[in-house]
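Bit of a strange request maybe. I'm writing a small parser for structure token strings and I need a real example to test against, not something I typed by hand. Could someone generate the tokens for this chain?
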Amino acid sequence: MIHERSFKSLCELPEFEPETYQKLCERIKGIQFAQETGRSNKMFKAQKLPKNFKLWSEYRDFLLDTYPYPDKKEIFLKRFSRQLQNEYVARQQVRQLVLNDYENNVPVINREDPRQEIINYYMEVL
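Reply from user aminoacidic:
Good idea to test on real output. This should exercise your parser:
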């Protein structure tokens, strides 16, 4: 119920299983917040770079350097080493680190930034 992919099901739980939802709220702190925000497209995305960092790759490296679980850190390092090294991918890698998604449930789309393709197209046309 509290997995990266199950937050949307928490939205419907009070309606269909109110007793289960109540027990879950009593047992796990933050369930009500997850239930209220589970349908939001903005939740659990890396949308704004912290003001201390100029690049997503810089922020990703900081998160890796300060990652608290050495065995899980190795999973991220190995996965990230096989992916492109650009800001589009780094932003998604930040999301995985923030979510602690070492299982790769919210995978990184490993490609060039699609916005850059549009910019290149219009630079050629204009």
